[in-house]
Amino acid sequence: MDAYDEGSNARHGPNAPRRPAPPAQRGAPADSTEPDVPPGPPEPDVQPGPEQEPVASLAPPEPVASLAPPEPYPPGEPRTGIAALSPRYQVGVALALAVVAIGVCVHIGMTFLHVAPANTVTRAHGEAVDDWIYPEFEQNWKLFAPNPLQQNISIQVRAGVRGPDGMTLTTGWYDLSAEDGRAIDGNLLPSHTQQNELRRAWDFFVATHDSENRPVGLRGSLSESYLRRIMVLRLDRDDAVRAATGSSGVIERVQVRSRTSNVPPPEWSREKVSTTPSYRELPWWRVPQDEARGGVR
What we know:
Elements: H1 87-115, H2 120-133, E1 151-162, E2 168-170, E3 174-175, H3 176-184, H4 192-207, H5 219-236, H6 239-245, E4 250-262, E5 278-281, E6 285-286, H7 289-292
Antiparallel strand pairs: 1-2, 1-3, 1-4, 4-5, 4-6
Helix pairs in contact: 1-2, 3-4, 4-5
C-alpha cells in the first residue's frame, strides 16, 4: 500500500497532513452509547479568498508627550507681579514680607497677652506688654460691658497767653468735646482723631491719677504730657483763641477740666437721676518752650 492510499487514515510522515474523518465519525468517540443523530444540511463550502488589507485610519496621529519639563511661562507672554522683578529685587520683596509677617505676629501676640487673664507670661513680662500696647493700641471693652456708660463727659480747656506787650491774658473755657461732636455730626466718615483722641487721652489720665490729681506710677507723668500736648495743638488750631489774642500770643500755661453729667432717662421711664453737671478741674500746667512754639502765635 503506497503513501497515497485513501483508505488509510494514518499519517505517513512527519509533514504529511491528516485527512479529515468522515462526517459520521467526526466529533463522536468510538465508545459513545448515545444514539446517532442524523446529519443536518451540509455546510456551504467557503472558498478562501484573497486576504483583505487593513484600511488605513484617517484619524490624526496622537501627539507624543514631550519629556522636557514645561516652561513656567509660555514663550512671548510677559511676566507680571513679583516674577517680573530681577532675582535681587525678589529677595528684597521676600525679606520685606517676612518682616511684616513677623511684626503682625508679634502685635497679635502682645494684644492677646494684654487682654488675656493674668498668667505666667504676663507676670514675668507684663511691663514689656504694657510698653507695647500703651497708649496707641490700648484695648477697651466697655462696649460689651453689662453696665455701659450712662454719662456725658466733655473736656474743656483754657490757656494763659502772653501777648507782645509781655502781659498774660487768660482765655475763657473752650469745650473741645463739643467741637468734636459738631465735626462728627452729619459726617458719614468722621476721622478717628475726632472720635477718640480726646476721650482716650482723658481716660488715660484718669486711670493713672488719684482723686487728688496726683500721678500714680511712672505712667502718670506720661499721661500729663500727652494730654497737655493735645490741648496746645487744639488751641493752636482754634480760631476763637486766635481772635482773642490777636494771633500774636504765645501759650505759657494751660488748665484742663472735665464736665460730667448723667444721661437723662427716657420719657417713659420712672427713673429719677440728677442732671446737674459736676466738674473736675486740674491744676495749671506750664507749657515748655518747645511745645509753645507749636502753640498760638
